[in-house]
Amino acid sequence: MIGLDIVRDVPLEPGSQELKAVFSSASNLIAVEKALPPEIAPPRRLLPTQVGFSDISPDADGRVRRSFLGVWAGEGEIKAFKFSLALRLAQVYLETQTEHKLDNSLRDPKAMSFSSTELPRVLPYSGGYVRADIFDVQTLLNYRSGRDPFRVLSMQQITEADFDPSWLKDQIVIIGITDASIRRIVNTVAIADLELPGQIAGVEFQAHATSQIISGVLEGRPLLKTVGEGWEYLWIIGWGILGIGISQLTSSSLRNLLIVGLLAVGLILLCFALLWNLGWWIPLVPALLVFTINGIAYTAFYQNSRTLIAIANERQRTIERTFNIIHNGPLQTLAAIRRRVQDQKMEQSHLLKELTNLNSEIRAVGEYLQREAINQENSLYLQNEKKLNLKLPVHELFYAVFSSTLERDLPAFNTLKVKVRNFEPLDNLVLDVDQKRQLCRFLEESLCNVGKHAYGATRLSAIGSLSEGRYTLCITDNGPGLCSDACGQGTKAALILKKQLRGAFIRESLSPKGTRCEFSFPLTQSWLRQLLTRQLKLLKM
Amino acid sequence: MIDDHELILSGTMNLLSKRFPNAQIHTMMAATLVVQQVATLQPDLVILDLSLPVTEQETPLAQAYVDTGIQLLQVLMREFTHLNIVVQSSYVKALVRVKYDIDNHAGGFTVVDKGLASEEMLTRVEWALQGITHTKDISGVQKGLEVKPEWVTVLMLAFKEGLQDKAIAQRLNVAERTVRHYWTKIYDVLGIYPEDDKRSGKNIRILTEIRAREEGLID
């Protein structure tokens, strides 16, 4: 089988008569023409089946990645379908030496196939191509690797018979020009280690194209194929959605970015593996871009919105805390003053003293808020400018709050004779600063309620006890009991606490007399949080 | 004796060596190493200032914190449950938050404000040596007595049901020694200081019952 890859339609003496004789007699010869404008006609004496075209179709960057299988050639209405040299050579070889016949593919009627092996078409939007100038029947060319994949005999070796005849018997021989000064150049970067980097001769290109078809049919060597346009869109959109999904996966930006990075590497490896093992060319760059951009941008976006939410929450907490302070401090004092003024039990001088107290209490709130604004406050402010460090164990805080609250000048405290109190210790890691603050406020407030409402009470008890995985804070008195079920701020603070600690709140009258106010919460926490807190604690140490 | 003020240290030393001529007195000026020293010396009494520097290098006074002293006190009470302790401080109210540990401490425990007269101070030291508790000064002026639930129960069992310590211990499911420890705390709450009152010929338990009824601890 001989392919003559030299395009010439003008006789060149000497030897043209001998060549014509060969053309007339040799049936195993296929010559070339140039089928696309400007056309160059094939040798006239050959049958149409002995002619293939040798046109090539470079990409926009000048490199050749595709080879023609057939084109519609000619002007206007009179068009003829022509086969390329590579297809002709492969067809003759396969049809004479094996059972494989050239036909249209069953899957894609416009593509060609030998038996069940389809030669996949490449289309203007296939794989990485976008609006490419690809027409008629072309296929992606998977160049053979290595510097010398084909045996090359020089003209001199032929004339001097310096070769083994078995090298040529039953083989496809392509004759062409490799002389660097006049050869046709095909640009490619697919083959490493070339004599002239990025360049091969036209004849070598034809050898690659022919070999690809034959190896694909006989050895099952992967032919480069692409998935349909729709599937490609689905693939890219899918990665985009995955990117958005990952941005919401965790609240840590760093972790999200790490996952994006890992998956991007995974995507590259996946595309590479598909191409390498199965010949599937799947759009990598658009998928990679849309995935990483979505992953990073949405992570930043969600991070930002999380920060905003956190700020809003913090502000809300500060407002609640402020109201708490005002409620447990000045408002209590004010309530006591009002009651005594109404009962007309108060002397002018005493009233003035109380009002002065009230004044300084309100000022203290202002100062506290200013300090709070400056630094993250870890302190609890009690009456009389007393300040507690909230990092202390919560039972120690309870003792301090208990003592300080009972020093306050509230009417019902005056009749108290016995104050039973005991606050059992609690693992300092269970509660955070804010929860401790709320619990202390709850205790303060419950004691204040006793001081304001439990007229005539002689006994007060405040017990913090630990049993069966729950901590219970119980404040009871033997006063007149609840007179109204007014749901003031007191209960509201307890409700916040209830939500924060998943606890239970009870406030009820006792028989024969007295009031009980109880808050209990479970100590069980997820092992993860415990572990994290412990780690943090260690780090801080 | 642990105090970071040279002056107070020597002044108190003087008073103590006059009152207790046979006593061996060791002094320290910072919180570190106190626990080891107490473990090796096994003293009868520790006199502790609350405002302390962590190490001696950190003197002068600017580096002394009440928190350091309180932490040291907590460790001492936890490690040596029967150690007699006198806390000498100008800010005894800071002890409020460790009341839980003080309530549970089985040794003598008295509090001395630094402004207190020396004679009074020496009395408190003696009390502490006798295992007596005196913590009145911590809470300041407040109406009513501050007690632990167990103490009320002990009073009930003793004066309403007439039980003896052994029976009370069985009822409460604790050691008899613990009940005696409860009594010292009850005496403190009711302002009964056994040595003094015994000297004036009083029956402590009966005195306790009278005071408890007066104060409304038992009806």
Description:
- The complex is a heterodimer of chains A (541) and B (219).
- Chain A has 541 residues and is α/β, with parallel strands linked by helices.
- Chain A has three domains: 2-226, no CATH class; 229-305, no CATH class; 392-541, 2-Layer Sandwich (Heat Shock Protein 90).
- Chain A has helices spanning 16-25, 85-97, 155-159, 202-219, 229-247, 253-278, 285-328, 330-342, 348-374, 394-406, 433-453, 489-501, 527-540, and strands spanning 2-4, 29-33, 51-53, 66-73, 80-83, 102-104, 112-114, 117-119, 137-140, 173-175, 185-187, 199-201, 225-226, 280-281, 379-381, 387-389, 418-423, 459-467, 470-477, 504-509, 515-522.
- In chain A, strands 17-18-19-21-20 form a five-stranded mixed sheet, covered by helices on one side. A four-stranded parallel sheet of chain A has the order 3-2-1-10, with helices on one face.
- In chain A, strand 6 and strand 7 form a beta hairpin.
- The longest helix of chain A is centred in the middle third of the chain and has 44 residues, at 285-328.
- Chain A starts with a strand and ends with a helix.
- Chain B has eleven helices and five strands, in the order ααβαβαβαβαβααααα.
- With 219 residues, chain B is α/β, with parallel strands linked by helices.
- Chain B folds into two domains: 6-139, Response regulator (Rossmann fold, 3-Layer(aba) Sandwich); 149-215, Orthogonal Bundle (Arc Repressor Mutant, subunit A).
- The termini of chain B are far apart.
- Strand 17 of chain A pairs parallel with strand 5 of chain B.
